[in-house]
Amino acid sequence: MGNVAFITGATRGIGRQIAITLAKNGFDIALNYRTENEDLLNTKKEIENENVKCFAVQGDVSNFESAENMVNKIIEEFGKIDVLVNNAGITKDMLLMRMKKEDFESVIDVNLVGTFNITKNVIPFMMKQRSGRIINISSVVGVSGNAGQTNYSASKAGIIGFTKSLAKEVGSRNILVNAVAPGFIETQMTDVLKDEVKEEIAKQIPLKRMGTTQDVANVVKFLASEDSSYITGQVINVDGGMLT
Ligand code: NAP
Predict the structure, then answer these.
(1) What residue ranges of the chain have pLDDT lower than 70?
(2) I need a surface site. Which of 7, 39, 156, 196 has the fewest CB within 10 A?
(3) In what helix (H) or strand (E) does residue 69 lie, and over which residues does it extend?
(4) In the CATH scheme, what is the homologous superfamily, with its name and number, of domain 4-238?
(5) Measured from the CA of 152, which atom of ligand 1 is nearest?
């Protein structure tokens, strides 16, 4: 049996690219999807083309029972989880003055509580096997803040604190916990921005372009590999130099 990677929110965007990249590197893939659609079928097909196993589990990361159920199903299927990538995330941008309580709570529930829910259910298995990699997808705005994103920035800053604390708790069991903080990456999440806004953002980035999902997936691949065996509790920015 090969190594197994579990990626949440993996049918499109960054999660999809991470799943495909890890599959290309020989990982069997457990992918979480929330909505059953064409994206799921396409991603599954692309992973299976790499001659690895792909097991899709439906569930909502913000719901603890759903998270528990997904992890149990993956363990039944593969017997282990070597790498967990907490990627599922949402935005509900609005200036605080106009932000509804529900929009603050739902972003925290998916991005931060979702990371807790999945990790809490995966960690006993990693503790038992005395190895594991947990890679949490944060964001540069979790470090820098961003007007209109108090909810999102708080959730992503929370993920950084969670990552550093957990790294200290489980290091002695050879479980490495790191975060990746992408800058502006071309996905459906950023598609909502007008072209003029995207161009303006790109001008502010030292590398003068938005990132690709592959730029992020390459760093996750490194953190999932033996090449990063002495790195834990870190936040790696993948942002073209935005935060320096
Ligand atoms: P995306 O294209 O919007 O994809 C998000 C994925 O998360 C979708 O597959 C979505 O599933 C899933 N998801 C959302 N809520 C979920 C829930 N409650 N349970 C399970 N799955 C859920 O976003 P993306 O740009 O690839 O972002 C991926 C991660 O990178 C997020 O954590 C995001 O915050 C972070 N990030 C993105 C950027 C960027 O510029 N794009 C920058 C920094 C950080 P559905 O299809 O069912 O909605």
Answers:
(1) 1
(2) 196
(3) helix 64-78
(4) NAD(P)-binding Rossmann-like Domain (3.40.50.720)
(5) 34
